[in-house]
Amino acid sequence: MALGLLATLRDEAAHLPRFLNLLEQLDGRPEWGPLVCSFYENDSHDGTAEALAAWLQHHRGTLISEQLGVPRLRGRAVARTQRLAAARNRVLEPLLQQQLDWLLVIDADLQVQPAQVLALHRLLQRYPEAAMVCASAVQNVPDVLGEGPWSYYDSWALRDRQGRGGITFAANPLRDPSDRWRWMAGLPVPVAAAFGGMALLPMAVVRRQGLQWQGDQGCEHWAFCAGARRAGPVLACPTVRPVVWHAQPPRWSAAYAAGVRSQLAA
Fold first, then answer.
1. Is residue 101 included in any domain, yes or no?
2. Domain boundary among 62, 85, 109
3. In Å, how far from its chain's centre is CA 188?
4. Radius of gyration of the chain (CA)
5. The domain spanning residue 32 has which CATH number?
6. Tens of pLDDT, residues 193-247
7. Are 236 and 123 within 8 A, CB to CB?
């Protein structure tokens, strides 16, 4: 058995010590054996490419590094999602050449504990019909309903089974009452799409379904999850909560909070 790890990075030198330490703790676990990494990096100016190349001298994996001379994009611009999809698809290719049992897709700037990766693996064993299990990263932005200091981070990637988007800045980002109850009970929720900063799936599903990211129609994870759902449910897992820490947290307005309350009440 072996675990493949896929990550795209740009100017992540500040996060690399924590990230690479996580990878070293995941390597050789009895649950999956060797760790094989595939990294894609472009246009970094902080030594990210050099640090990854140095680390890979002593670990299994590959690095694709490019100088494209393109600005870093943020938000939901189509150009950004297209670029992300292309990068993820490209960095997947080396892993498809390996004999791997599992694929872990992860954001390098997350604060992740090894136990959280193990929890995703256990959930796949507990729900063998599932095609993919997704973490539920939280951020240091208070819940829009006043239910705590944290909220779900990746609301754009999240879509429920009816295709409705996740509630931004909510600790419980789902709209359907039954989904909300499952979330509050700590049970995985079947969704149309999710990522949550980290997702695990069998490599056999990736190969059999020919999974690819696609950024032309919105979040690049939507198409990847649509393909995975041909093999089984995609589960958003509320108990696996890595952290995204904002140095300057975004804020929501009172009007937005009132709108969320109104929508949920309806």
1. yes
2. 109
3. 15
4. 18
5. 3.40.50
6. 999 999 999 999 999 999 999 988 899 999 999 999 999 999 999 999 999 999 9
7. no
Residue 160 near residue 266 (C-beta atoms within 8 A)? no
| 128 & 225 share domain | yes
**pLDDT tens for residues 5-38?**
999 998 888 999 999 999 999 999 999 999 999 9
| Cα–Cα distance, 159 to 168 (Å, whole number) | 12
Please give the Cα distance from 238 to 190 (Å, whole number): 11
Contact 24, 116 (CB under 8 A): no
Helix (H, G, I), strand (E, B) or coil at 191: strand
- Residue 150 and residue 105 share a domain: no
pLDDT in tens, 145-166: 999 999 999 999 999 999 999 9
Tokens (6 digits) for 135: 């973490």
What contacts 91, CB < 8 A, 6 or more positions away? 6, 7, 8, 38, 39, 40, 64
Which residues, 6 or more positions from 138, have their beta carbon under 8 angstroms from its beta carbon?
Answer: 150, 151, 152, 153, 171, 241, 242, 243, 244
Q: Which residues, 6+ apart, have CB-to-CB distance to 70 below 8 Å?
A: 42, 43, 83
Instruction: Please tell me the total number of residues recorded for the chain in this structure.
Output: 266
State both tokens at 69: 């001379």
Domain, as residue range, for 129: 116-199+221-266
Cβ 133 vs Cβ 105: under 8 Å: no
Q: Edge-to-edge strands of the sheet including 243-244?
A: 151-152, 138-139, 243-244
**The pair of three-digit structure tokens given for residue 183, joined into one six-digit string:** 């979330």
Of the candidates 93, 109, 125, which is a domain's last residue? Answer: 109
Q: Specify the 3-state DSSP secondary structure of 187.
A: coil
**Bridge-based pairing state of the strands 189-191 and 234-236:** antiparallel
